[in-house]
Structures are given as structure tokens and as C-alpha cells.
What does this fold into?
Amino acid sequence: MLDSLPAIPLWVVADKGYASNAFRERIWDMAARPAIPAKRRDGAVACPKWVYRRRHLVENLWARLKEWRAVATRYEKTATSFLAVIHIAAAADWIKP
It folds into this structure.
């Protein structure tokens, strides 16, 4: 997914599932900065507090998207269909009052 971004981001925000040194190095190599919390077994990772505080917005979005059964269980078989379901769920979340 990082290769398909239209521009190089300033920060790459992810959850603990992506907390590996290899992934962080990949982000640094593309001239971006990782905002990924460390796993319990690893040491703390330096990250500005304002970026780390806003990282919860990404986690909250995924929590709301997983309320959709098709997103939570990856019901769709192809990547294209799954991405379409994520787009529909995100749009419905965005317009929900």
C-alpha cells in the first residue's frame, strides 16, 4: 500500500500490528516518519506527542468500520471487492450523524 500512495506522506500512522523494525525502516527509506506504537516486549519508540495523540483517530475509524460484518470477517473474496466494502462502510460512517 505504501507504494501506491500518490505522494510521500509526512507521517505514516499504524497500529501495533505493524510495529517491526523492518517496516519502520521501509517508512524511513521513503522519507516519511513512522507513528507506530511499540509492542510490549520492545522498548519505547520516539514520536512527538501530538502525532501519537492523534493516532487514536485511525484506530477509532477501524473500530467503527469493523462494526460492519463484511469488513470484520473479510467476507469478500477478492481484494477489489473488499476495498469496495471498506469504501462503502467509510462513506456510511462519514455521513452518519
